[in-house]
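Hey team,

Filing this mostly as a record. A colleague (T.K.) asked me to run one chain through the structure pipeline before their review meeting, and I want the input and output archived in the tracker in case anyone asks later how it was produced. No errors, nothing strange. Just documentation.

Input sequence:
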Amino acid sequence: MSRGWDRVYDDADYDRRAYLGGEEMIDYLERFCDRFGPFEDVVSVGCGPAVVPFALAERRPELSITGLDAAERVVADNRELAAERDLANLSFAVDSLPDLDVDRRFDLVYCAATLYFVADAERALSSLYELVRPGGTLVVNYPNERTREWARDHDDEKRVDFSLVAAGDNLLSRERIGERLDAEVRDYWTAVDAADADFVSPETPMVYVERPAGSE
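Output structure:
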């Protein structure tokens, strides 16, 4: 699933930043936890440099937080940094979509700026939902037709490979997500009062899906 990320992270000077929305994403996720929790454990899939997981672990020491990423280098760097900051509630592992080698479930599954680089986005979506404990929530952003237009228009400006999106090979829609998961899909940006943020646009859809408490 790396789609160029291994190359980015092999450079020791890579930026530690949230690739969608910047550091505002920290406040938005914390707001979501306040409004839709309580959550005991969280997994960030495709976490990259894990800006959001690190901040959440520092602000919420009662939360158990796991970060998963396909790039071994960034996982190793994240582990080292978590140890330096003495964040015992934060752990990392190498794993990648569309199939995940995880044998547990979480109250909150969070996946941002990751499905762009997965060829089988629908299968990845199902894998993410399988990680959600009954009564828990999936938060995910995804590429759609508008993201495809953006990828085609800005191809020369990107450091990583958005060719799957540009070719239309892994596009989703809110309707298709609902059909695939057989669940109601709601807008994440609206839920965290971010709908008017500068980076929120038709190219950056993000939704949440609550898994029924009685489901298997």
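Quick notes for T.K.: The first helix runs from residue 5 to 10. The first strand starts at residue 41 and ends at 45.
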